[in-house]
Design goal:
Blueprint (H helix, E strand, L loop, with lengths): L2 H13 L3 H4 L3 E5 L6 H12 L3 E3 H9 L4 H11 L6 H12 L8 E4 L5 H9 L6 E6 L2 H9 L1 E3 L6 E3 L26 H15 L1 H9 L2 E5 L4 H11 L6
Parallel strand pairs: 1-3, 1-4, 2-3, 4-7
Antiparallel strand pairs: 5-6
Helix pairs in contact: 3-11, 4-5, 6-7, 8-9
The chain binds adenosine-5'-diphosphate (2 copies) and zinc ion.
Length: 237
């Protein structure tokens, strides 16, 4: 998206006079793999002018390095397991301390365990809204089987619909698109199980704190986006 459009979006928000209400929020996206967290997170980031921080993207970048830490992270990811909490917390809190996240952030894929949620609360960057995007398992499996991503700018595509203009090439940055290794069918089921065991309990955690908003992620991208906007009291687009 162009800088011009982003500026216009910002103007539109302040015209509605609810800038104080919508800007500078700390938002967490919760939900199973394939629910549409990345898709919605990227759209929200444009509208709010806040960084979309996806722990999976951070780990995929880290994994590419030639260090013992990278080797360790790679092993967990390939097996569809979570990276240990201490390491995950360190990496994500370090990212949140960077200047672009000072006013607010959209966290995608973190926290995924209760210790991670507690660490975030204790860091002084507590969560204003936890958006829980959910969809039935068969929908998730089908979406993941069609997902392609850009390793460079993290744009999300899918086979058949929302496919790039030039085959296997990112519309945004021109990099060759890839299928994520952990999107292979044999890894998706264990990933979903890990989600149910470790992350699903966070729905109750945020519900207790009164910050949870549930959104039906099985609807079209545009309808989900409208409901997200409404939940955050953003003006209708
Ligand atoms: P997550 O970040 O929750 O794992 P993604 O945003 O990467 O999910 O979406 C997974 C795949 O499904 C992508 O290929 C994306 O284009 C597609 N997708 C996302 N939201 C929807 C939706 N509401 N309806 C149909 N397909 C979607
Ligand atoms: P998903 O489509 O499952 O949301 P992500 O791209 O968010 O996938 O994450 C990919 C992988 O990175 C996970 O399967 C896990 O190994 C690791 N990972 C990402 N975020 C976390 C986290 N908060 N805690 C532990 N592991 C994580
Ligand atoms: Zn790209």
């Amino acid at each position: 998206m162009t800088a011009g459009l982003r500026r216009r979006e910002r103007g539109r928000l302040s015209n509605y006079g609810n800038r104080g209400e919508t800007m500078g929020k700390n938002i967490v996206l919760l939900g199973p793999p394939g629910a549409g967290k990345g898709t919605q997170g990227q759209r929200l980031a444009e509208k709010l002018d806040e960084p979309h921080i996806a722990s999976g993207d951070i780990f995929r970048q880290l994994r590419g390095q030639d260090t013992p830490l990278a080797q360790k992270v790679k092993g967990y990811m390939e097996r569809g397991e979570y990276v240990p909490d201490d390491l995950t917390i360190r990496v994500v809190l370090e990212r949140l301390s960077q200047p672009d996240a000072r006013q607010g952030f959209i966290l995608d894929g973190f926290p995924r365990t209760e210790p991670q949620a507690q660490a975030l609360d204790n860091s002084g960057r507590s969560v204003d809204v936890a958006l829980y995007i959910n969809a039935p398992v068969d929908v998730l499996v089908e979406r993941i089987s069609r997902r392609y991503t850009c390793p460079k700018c993290h744009a999300i595509y899918e086979a058949s619909r929302r496919s790039p203009k030039k085959e296997m090439t990112c519309d945004v940055c021109g990099a060759p698109l890839e299928r994520r290794a952990d999107d292979a069918p044999e890894v998706v089921r264990p990933r979903l199980q890990t989600y149910l065991d470790k992350t699903r309990p966070l729905v109750d955690y945020y519900e207790r704190l009164g910050t949870l908003v549930e959104i039906d992620g099985a609807q079209t991208i545009e309808v989900v986006e409208r409901e997200v906007d409404r939940a955050l009291r953003l003006p209708a687009g």
